[in-house]
Amino acid sequence: MLNRKSFLKIGGLSLSGLLVNKTIAAPIVENIDNITSKNRGVKFGVISDLHYDLMHDSDRRAQLFIDTMVKEQPDFIIQLGDFCVPKPKNKPLLDIWSKFEGEKHYVLGNHDTDGGFSKEQALAFWGATNPYYSFDKNGFHFVVLDGNEKSETKKIDGYPRSITKKQLNWLKKDLQNTSLRTVIFCHQGLENTLGGLDNGMEVRYLFEQINKEAGFNKVVLVLTGHHHMNYHNEINGIHYVQINSSSYYWAGEDFKSSAFSDDFYKKHGILRYTLVYEDPIWAVIDLDHKKNIRIQGTKTKMAGVPLSDAGIDVYKDVYPITSEIDSRKLKY
């Protein structure tokens, strides 16, 4: 039985860089109130699960995001993992990424080390340094976590998806040492039991204890990728928002897509097991000091075949399959 991990390692990811001709089109931006105001504290652009090595039009997808960010001029941009492996063949992505001259941040995803690469190699290739770290911007605190550590208590099938005691101890001290409202970034969902962070409950409990200790909601927002889904949960006063993949939904090895031609799938075989989004999607997020969180999402449609005709249970992963990132207005 072919599995996703073994497929990704075939031929050293030789699928990367393959392109098809397609007219560049932007995704549809959902309507939301103007997020720029005198009360805006920080604004950032976020994209997740580009999977540059797998997509047939990955340059186009990255370019559309960066073109929009250059126009929007957020305080920083961040990718939430599964960006690209550190191969010279993937340098065109970094050239596109560098067109945004502002601050850039990176979260490690489980697929960023496919093909035998190390975390250190991936980070160095991107121009990043640490797998987990924190920074401040405009009166807010931001924490990047590494959810790709091996469990210290049990064997987990597939990719490592835990946070070790060492990182947890660092996280606790980091959060105790700031008085600022805090946003957390992690690749794997902390509240998703379908392949999410294995000790997500432990990390969530730490956030809740930090908030109790502070006497106010210090940790206010957690942003994750990995699941290629679109949802929001509020747990004990903390918002957990899943940022959908910019590229596709992983349908599984039992699914066979007919969205493209057989010739297409001969070149891009792994996409046979996906529902490809016609255009890339991302979000622009704004937090102000009046306890407002505004997420400006984007949406597109499934490429080739409408979702209703794809022959898949839309609720197979509980949350509905979609090619959207919802716009949301949240309070902290």
Write out key terms for the chains shown.
332 residues, single chain, 6-stranded mixed sheet, Purple Acid Phosphatase, chain A, domain 2, 21% helix, globular, alpha/beta, disordered N terminus
Molecular structure report:
With 332 residues, this protein is an alpha/beta fold. The chain has a single domain (57-331), classed as Metallo-dependent phosphatases (Purple Acid Phosphatase, chain A, domain 2, 4-Layer Sandwich). It is 21% helix and 22% strand. It is built from seven helices and 16 strands. The chain has helices at residues 4-9, 58-72, 91-97, 119-126, 165-176, 200-214, 262-267; strands at residues 28-29, 40-47, 76-79, 103-106, 133-137, 140-144, 181-186, 219-224, 231-235, 238-242, 248-250, 274-276, 283-288, 292-296, 298-299, 328-331. The strands form four sheets. The chain has a six-stranded mixed sheet with strand order 4-3-2-13-14-16, with no helix packed on it. Helix 5 (165-176) runs parallel beside helix 6. The longest helix has 15 residues, at 58-72. The protein is globular and about 60 Å long.
Largest sheet: spatial strand order = 4-3-2-13-14-16
The counted number of beta strands is 16
The CATH superfamily label reads: Metallo-dependent phosphatases
Kindly provide the radius of gyration, computed on alpha-carbon positions and rounded to a whole number of angstroms.
19 Å
Tell me what the CATH architecture is: 4-Layer Sandwich
**How can the largest sheet be summarized?**
6 strands, mixed
Beta content comes to 15-25%
Q: What is the CATH T-level topology?
A: Purple Acid Phosphatase, chain A, domain 2
Number of separate structural domains: 1
**Which whole number gives the mean pLDDT?**
91
Using the coordinates above, name the CATH class.
Alpha Beta
The total of helices stands at 7
Which of globular, elongated, flat, extended, rod-shaped describes the shape?
globular
The quaternary structure here is: single chain
Residue windows where pLDDT falls under 50 for at least 5 positions: 1-24, 30-38
Strand/helix succession: HEEHEHEHEEHEHEEEEHEEEEE
- The class by helix and strand makeup works out as alpha/beta
Query: Can you give the helix content as a percent range?
Result: 10-25%
Distance between the termini: 46 Å
